[in-house]
Each structure stands twice: as structure tokens, then as C-alpha cells.
Specification:
Number of domains of chain A: 3
Largest interface: A-B, 87 and 87 residues
CATH class of the largest domain in chain A: Alpha Beta
Number of helices of chain A: 12
Shape of chain A: globular
Strand content of chain A: 25-35%
Number of strands of chain A: 24
Helix content of chain A: 25-40%
Oligomer: homodimer
């Protein structure tokens, strides 16, 4: 039936968010002569990580879009349509706007928010966070009238939403988190507490160790009932408890799906069909630490996978080492960053660790403009002395400091590598060279590692 | 004569600035039971990199001091005295406050500003930048009355001084630079131009390709005469043309001095006497690139050397790979960072290079608060594909972005390592994952490297 296909492309990319766009750009860069078509279902595509900021800082969904100019300047054709099926034998995709043939296909179909199986989750006024402009407008409209807002989930989406909505000033906001601490999957307790305290100081209520048993209401949500019976008034509920891979298109075409629910890919981002690659939230991720499936879904991981998939389409040249897990969150003046494993997670995985923390300003002297108290914690594995995790709490510097830690972990730097790291410093831009956090934490850990090694032998 | 020495210490450190303090702290960390004495000649020690900011942002030399608390909390004894000689056979130092015996000696005697051999350089009103509180007070007092200020040297000290003094608002400031561009030892032209334009827009005059032939005056400076005859009015002149290693103490004791003028040290920071180590501005540095002597003198290099020296005193465990050259400068909203080689410097050294530049905001979307246009340029070596340099122009993020580049260079990361670097991103803290500068520049360079390789074969 190949001949029925009106149009053939060298490469078809399905999905127009972070992974799809970057995959397409990467193909264009590595294979300049190939004809690339990106098909996406959305008219406009929100920047995923910017979504919470629509409701406070930015002001509207239209101020948080991935610009189509990115595709245009990279000479990538794109079409707005839904891909309904893949014919792997014929190498075609069917879409709501006709069929397209491909030589290589990249699936970047993303993820959808999880709707937990709680009674009342389908009531009016209960919002999962859809990466869709119309849905975001609907949420924004509803927020305009809401006074009592409950956010289920105290991960980064939950707390960023809480603070941004809180900027309107006339609302009572409660974050409900199942675990004993907000953000505890990515941060050790001492960092989680700082964020919880900041949110509380801004008038946001935090209910940790709290399980939602029912969302109550009659047509529209009225309150949220917790295990134990207590109720929280709510005229709007936001679900911030994670997302699941969109694998239907691939699975229906017979592609293998992994145990964690994402499309199976090897380290080159190839699916079980050698002509089909996948990247982003729709794939199963493997951890950098130990190689088991990882449930992390982050734009930065999606990008990495897109760069691997796009480069490998017509000849393998890149492999993934697995996901490190590097991300930051920010609420007002407080930013938190994490890379790799927390102390708690490392111990749970069976690593024997030594940690070191350093606290001090990110400028020198500490009276320079922009100075923010900054705390860094590094986690080293005892036998290899290799860095396996880092967390940072501070101001604006946290974002790029986290990426320095990420580079060190990714290149498996040892405590000595980091203690003798050649950093640059400047009074107006960084901590002092004497007190530079990452280097000092390594120096302190270095002593503990020697002691740990002596104790072992 | 050993018995005449009243006091013996395990370790004596000479010098109380960045290198000396860090060396002493490092000894304390690695050898907790050793008796450490730091001897310095200054009552109070300025933070070296903060000195320009005394004259604008900070307001007085006392607001820019290395706190003695650093020594106290690390249980390091210190004494204010001048070390006048070393008796290597007896292992003692003579000071203006008596003699002290040592088992290991660390020299961190720093550097002194170069006074160029220009007629008139000794006139009243001509100031080298001494790291000395009394001298800085004298300069501050004189600046209070000065209207026409000429700064000789357009390196980072020159331009930072120019802008800070300019904040007083009632002065005419001229920077005179011998080279065709300010900052050209550390930045390629396109970055230098941005800084020159910013300084000009703030009312500072920049005279490049200009050689000072004479500082004219009668007792006190009156003007600066350039080659070609033009004169610039000056009632105060600041010399910002670099510094020379303080090697007298070591040389007089028979320690070897290198061709570049610093104390010779091996990669473990040991001098030609195995009981004497040296670190900081007083040592001869070797470049990370090719291993020849390097004339760089930076606090961050001093720190690295101090950490190596301090750790190695009683057993070698660290070696220097040579100096990378990582540093930043900032004038108002504009910051520049550099790590490793510029394109020009790399070519001069004989490297065949491919460069890639990327420009975009350091937030996403670019309308987020704190967003600053940010440009990054990476320099790769063609045959190995290894990163050998990077330069950044932007806002506050420049400091830590430069250190990410530094980590990549130091671990000899290839273009592929960097293109698949797992960075974390956040709307309020970093560029978007799609446009993340370092990764994108590597991707772009990757294509050029393939072409360069094809052209070569």
C-alpha cells in the first residue's frame, strides 16, 4: 500500500514539545539534507517547566510558549494534526490530516498527568495540569473565582503552583503531601524543611503525611477529605502528583513497553523497531545509578534523549549513560537544586556514603549586592570516593551551581578531582575562592572518606 | 644553633592572603594534630578580588577584609610580623617578632604591583594597587579630591576600578591600554568590544593601542603623555598592569626561581627544598595547555595551589595539572567569564580549533525576571574534539556558567560529552533546556568538527 501515501519524508517526528522540537533540530544539524516533518496535535505548545509561572509571574499561557520560530529557523516543516496509527511494515503514519511515509520515525509523544483513583476526582473544579493552552486558560479562569485552593502533591509542580497562585493575595492555599516532607524524592530533609518554612511564611498551608481519601462535592468540588477524617475547604483542586508516559500510539503499533510504563528503548534511544526511535517523557528511563528503571520525567532528560535519538537516526554515535536526575525549583528568593542521589536515596540503593555540607554567601565579601546564603551538600560513595549526588539551597546561583555538580557526577569525578577543581571566582558573581562551596565540601568529605576507609580496613 | 629557637611548629605558613589562609586551613584539615602557625605582615588583609569594589559598591577597605575568624575557627595560630630570612639548615625562620622553627614551611608571599619604567611613575598621585589597607585608604582619600583620573592598563583590574570610581559621578576617567582591545589576553575581540562599549556608555573614555610614554607633573602628577604626543589631564593615575611574584625571601634562602620570575615548584607545589612548599602568586605557574610557564596570577589559582601544598606536606597525594585560567569580571549589569584558551590564544599556541557561539536569555521564557541576554563561545581542538576554552558574556549567571565550562575543560570533555551533558534547568534560574548554551554550542561545534575532519582527510 506504500503507493497510496501521497507524501514521504526522511524523518517524521511525532510531538512538538521539548523532546520533539529538540529531536527535529538535532536531525537537522546532523543530517542537513534530510527532509524532516514534525507533527504535533497542539496549535500552540506551552513551555512545560514554565506552566506554574503563567498564574503569577507571566500572566497568561500565551506568554509561555515554545516559539515556532525555533522550527522555522531550523528549516523544519511542521503540521498540526493528531497521529492516529503507525503502519510499521509500510513505514507510514496516519494522521487526522492524511498519511505520511517515513524512513525514520521519532516518537516524542510526552506524558499526561496522573488522575489518581480518588472518589470525586472527576468533579468540576479538579484540575490535572495539562500541557495545553485551552486547559490552562480554563484553569486560569477558574482560579479567578476560587478562594480555597487545595493542591494535591508537594513535589515541585505542587509547590511552584502554590506560590504562584498565592501571588494573587486573596486565596487560601493548602498543599497536601502524602510523604512526611514536600520534595522528599529529590532532597534530604534539611532542604525540604527550608522550602516548607518559606511557603508557610508566605501564608501557604502545608499538610504533609496526609493522604487524600475523597474529593467531596456536588457537581463541583467543595472540600478535600483526608485519611483520619479532617476536611479542607476547596473550591478548586489541582493535581500535582506526577504523569504517565503516552505510549498508546507506539504500543498499538506493537512496540515494546517497559515495566515502568514507558516505551522500551535501548541506550541509543531505539525502540524495538530499528526504524523507530523515541525520546522524552514517553520512554522508559534507566537510572545512571545501578541501571534500573527510573520514574523521573524532566524536560532536561527529554532533551538529552532527543539529542541522542536525533543524532543516531542514520548511524549510531551516541549512547545514554542513564538519567542522573538534575533539576531545580524556585519560590521567591529561595531556590533548591539537586543532581544525582540524595543521602537517603543513596543509602536505600545500598551505597555506603559520606556527606559534607558547606554554608556561606554566594558573593564575596558577603555584603556585595545579590549575596544570598547558600548551602551545598555533596554525597560521595565511600569505596570509590566518587561523587554521586549534590543538593544546593540558595538564590539565583543555584541553577548553574547544580549543573557544575551534575558535570562532576556525570564524569564520575572523585573527591580529589573536586577538591582540586579550578574554579573562577568574582566578588559580584560567586563565593570567595577560600569558601567556594563545591571545593570546600569535597575537602571536608575527603577527611571523612579517609576515616571511613580506615574504619573499614 | 637549633637550641636557640624558643618556639618550634610543625608547620609555618608565611603569608596571610588567599593562598596562605587556604594552605593553613588545608593543613589543619589533612593533618589535624599538627601545630600550625601563620605569619603575616599585615594587621588586616584585604580580599584581593574585592579591592576595586572598595571605591564604589563597598565604601571602605574595612568592608573588604579576609576575616580572622577563618583562622580562629580552624584553630590556626597567627602572628603579625615580617619574616626576614629562612635558615634552611636549621629549619627556622627569623621574623621581626623572633625566630620560629618549622618541620615544613609554606611560602605564600604573594605578589606586588608592577611599577613600569615610565618617566614620572614616582610622582605623587601615581598609585599602584597595593593589597594593603593603609595604601588603600591613601588612595581613597586622594580619589576624593581627584577630578581627572587615568588608569594605565585595561585588564580586569583597570576596568573594574574605572567603573567603581566612576560611580562617584563627578570624575573624568580614562583607561589607557597598550593592546588594540581591553581584556584581550582573556577574551576574543567580540567580548572585549561589548565591555568597551558598556564602559563608554557610562562615560568612561577608553584609549586602546595607546602607549604611555611619560607621566608628567611637578611633584604631583599633572597629565599622562602617550606615544604620538597626545596628553590626557590627570590629577591621579592608577597602575593596573599586572604584578610580580614576591620571591625575595625564598631566593635569598637559595630556593630556585623560574624563568618567569616565580619560585620554582614541581607539580606537588614543592620548591627545590623538599621541606619547603610554595603556593599562590609567588610561584611559577605552568599552563594546563602545553605545560609552559604561565603568567596568570589569580586568587583561584592561588587557592588550588594552596590545597595541593597543604595536603602534600607530610605525604604527596595531589598534583597540579597546570593552570587553566578561569576568571570573571563584572561591570554593572555586564559580566564576562573565561576559562581556558581564547580562540586567538589557542591558534597562537598552534592548536587547530573549531569554535561555536550561542546567544539567548539565561531564563525561560526570556520574559522571566532576571533574564539577561547571554552569549557563550566554546573552543574545541579539532583532532581530539576536546574542549580547550570557553567565554561567556551575560548577567549574574556568568560566574557559575564559567565554572561549568572549567569543569568540562579540566576533565578533558569532548564535544560529544558536552552535547549529551545532563543539565538541569528552571524558568527562574537558567536558560531553557532546548536552548541551553553550553550544550547547544557543543552541538553546533560538533557539525563543524565533522567538516574539519573531512577536510583534513
Amino acid at each position: 500500500m506504500k503507493n497510496d501515501v501521497a507524501e514521504r519524508c526522511d524523518v517524521v517526528v511525532v510531538g512538538g514539545s521539548a523532546a520533539g522540537v529538540t529531536a527535529a533540530i538535532t536531525v537537522r544539524r546532523h543530517y542537513p539534507s534530510k527532509k524532516v516533518l514534525l507533527i504535533r496535535k497542539e496549535e500552540k505548545v506551552p513551555i512545560p517547566c514554565g506552566i506554574p509561572y503563567i498564574f503569577g509571574t507571566l500572566g497568561s499561557p500565551e506568554k509561555n510558549l515554545i516559539p515556532d520560530a525555533l522550527l522555522e529557523t531550523n528549516k523544519i516543516d511542521f503540521r498540526i494534526a493528531t497521529v492516529t496509527s503507525i503502519d510499521r511494515a509500510a513505514k507510514t503514519v496516519s494522521t487526522t490530516a492524511g498519511s505520511v511515509g517515513y524512513d525514520r520515525l521519532i516518537l516524542a509523544t510526552g506524558s499526561s498527568p496522573i488522575r489518581p483513583r480518588i472518589p470525586g476526582v472527576d468533579l468540576e473544579g479538579v484540575f490535572p495540569i495539562e500541557k495545553d493552552v485551552a486547559c490552562l486558560h480554563q484553569l486560569q479562569d477558574d482560579l479567578g473565582h476560587a478562594k480555597h485552593i487545595v493542591i494535591i502533591g508537594g513535589g515541585f509542580i505542587g509547590i511552584e503552583f502554590a506560590d504562584e497562585i498565592n501571588k494573587a493575595g486573596d486565596k487560601k492555599i493548602t498543599v497536601v503531601e502524602m510523604a512526611p516532607r514536600c520534595l522528599s524524592l529529590a532532597y534530604d530533609d534539611e532542604f525540604c524543611v527550608d522550602m516548607e518554612e518559606l511557603l508557610k511564611s508566605r501564608g501557604i498551608e502545608i499538610r504533609t503525611s496526609s493522604l487524600v481519601e475523597e474529593i467531596e462535592g456536588n457537581g463541583r468540588v467543595r472540600c478535600v477529605r483526608l485519611r483520619g477524617g479532617s476536611k479542607i475547604d476547596a473550591d478548586l483542586v489541582i493535581l500535582g502528583i506526577g504523569s504517565k508516559a503516552n505510549v498508546e500510539l507506539g504500543r498499538d503499533a506493537g512496540l515494546r513497553v517497559g515495566d515502568s510504563g514507558g516505551l522500551s528503548v535501548d541506550r541509543t534511544m531505539r525502540t524495538s523497531d530499528p526504524s523507530i526511535f523515541a525520546c522524552g517523557d514517553c520512554t522508559e528511563k534507566i537510572s545512571f545509578f545501578g541501571g534500573r528503571p527510573s520514574y523521573l520525567k524532566l524536560a532536561s532528560i527529554a532533551e538529552l534523549e532527543a539529542r541522542i535519538a536525533g543524532a543516531n537516526l542514520f548511524g549510531i554515535r551516541r549512547e545514554s549513560d542513564g538519567t542522573l536526575g538534575v533539576w531545580c525549583t524556585a519560590v521567591g528568593p529561595l531556590a533548591l537544586g539537586t543532581a544525582g542521589l540524595t543521602e537517603v536515596a543513596a543509602k536505600e540503593l545500598g551505597y555506603q556514603v559520606v556527606c559534607a555540607s558547606v554554608e556561606g554567601p554566594n558573593r564575596h565579601p558577603g555584603t556585595m549586592p545579590g549575596a544570598a546564603p547558600t548551602k551545598l551538600k555533596l554525597v560521595f560513595e565511600v569505596h570509590s570516593n566518587v561523587l554521586i549526588g549534590g543538593q544546593i539551597r540558595g538564590g539565583d546561583s543555584v541553577g548553574e551551581m547544580t549543573n557544575i555538580v551534575a558535570a562532576c557526577i556525570q564524569k564520575r569525578m572523585t573527591v580529589e578531582d573536586i577538591a582540586t577543581f579550578q574554579m573562577g571566582t568574582h566578588p559580584a558573581l560567586t563565593a570567595s575562592p577560600i569558601a567556594y562551596h563545591i571545593v570546600n565540601a569535597a575537602e571536608i568529605a575527603s577527611q571523612s572518606l579517609i576515616c571511613a576507609e580506615h574504619a573499614r580496613t
